[in-house]
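FAQ: What does a ligand-bound record look like?

Like this one, built around pyridoxal-5'-phosphate:
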Amino acid sequence: MSAENSSSGSESTPSRTPPSFQDLVRDAMRQHKHEKESEAHQIFRNAAGHKPKGVIPQTVNPDEETVPGIEHPGSTGVIYCSDRAMANGFNYANSHEWANLGQGAPEVGPIPNAPSRPDSIPMPVDSLEYAPTTGVKELREAVAHLYNDTYRKDKASKYTYENVCIVPGGRAGLSRVAAVIGDVYTSYQIPDYTAYDQVLSAFKRLVPVPTALDIKSKYKLDIEQTKKDIRTQGLAVILASNPRNPTGQVIKGHDLKELVSLGREGTTTILDEFYSWYIYPEHESGYGKSISAAKYVEDVNQDSTVIIDGLTKNWRLPGWRVCWVVGPKNLITALSQSGSFLDGGANHPMQLAAIPLLDPARVALEKVALQRHFKAKRDHVLARLHDLGLDVDLPPSSTFYIWLNLAQLPEPLNNGLVFFEELLKFKTIVIPGIFFDINPAHRRNLFNSPCHHFVRLSFGPPIEDLDRGLDAIGLVLKKAKRNGSANFGHGYV
Ligand SMILES: Cc1ncc(COP(=O)(O)O)c(C=O)c1O
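The answer part, i.e. the structure of the complex:
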């Protein structure tokens, strides 16, 4: 059965037949302004852990007994989207028939002019033991060396292995860091990486303080305003992804220098730099440059700048679960303690296998190859979106995400969650913008979210997948032109 056939039967209703009562109701629904009247939003609210706060306990099946003391934290947006895709027929066996522009994963196969991909892992007997919770010393040294070589050649203060903690993935790194943040105001911005929502709400001591970034100022973090907030609100910690997921914008140069300087004035700055190589230069001379706060840190043990990165995106090895946190020695000892009860450390053989991948000469080749390949994909997707009449307000200068504003489309297609559900009918996954509206209290009407009209498209996958997804977007838009929008917003499985 084709994707088109698998959608609601009402799509084939000739437009000349008089409107039925159901059609009238649907027409009225198109005017809806509250999530309660949107089927796509109600499906989301009914998934365990996604009810507005205060409506607990929550279970997967409301008829089931609740488990005493257990509360669903809510899955991250990306996982919710995969679950919805599975409900619509997606599975790992048929995933090649789908275009997954949702999951934030880079393609992992060979790309032109990059060093060959690792294809086997040695397993010396020692590697069968636990690794230390801070990681294998040689890998910590290799990480420190890479940062010194790339960003700190001119600095007297250099990172050593004692400034590096190896962690089993970026989210494990974020959780280890969040677990050691005390009873303080922790600032984050909207929109940003979806997992911050759960991470910030799971560790109850810290108090999350959101700041909304505005498209009018190109989603730029206002450093002067941040300095004021530090003074007036007493912010102690600032968390941001840089380059930023999902907007594809980056804090660099003077702004990054200023942000890092906050770490010398009593505010801890946590920079999640998972996309630090995904920088798309305008000129040939720009290839091979990456961006990190490490360039602006003066004293590696005095400046409270914390950097999180790893093999997941830059090395295109998300399955390895080998990542790191770089920061003052005193932070690393705290992370060793939180790791000792949170995750127990990264996989030992994979840590050993990672060491040669951090060789600066190899990294230099990887970076250029990756930037050329992903820039070409970005330009291709932007051009195809333009042909579909979907120009991007703010094309990404970094990451592999496009933050697409749907506000110009007819209702209800102009809301990210409905657009997502409609694309599932055509075997394509994107991520509705609301999942980047980090709102740990889950209290508001989702229609009021500043991210309501957006979806995030990933150009991480290979170009064939991107084209399949773009074809699907074209089909949804064609369907809207042909039949109007009455057929959208309902009939979801
Ligand atoms: C900004 C950012 N940080 C961290 C991660 C997570 O990394 P990992 O998959 O290693 O947990 C992601 C993944 O999407 C991300 O986008």
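Follow-up question: can I read anything off the structure? Yes, for example: Residues 1-16, 18-22, 24-31 have pLDDT under 50 and may be disordered.
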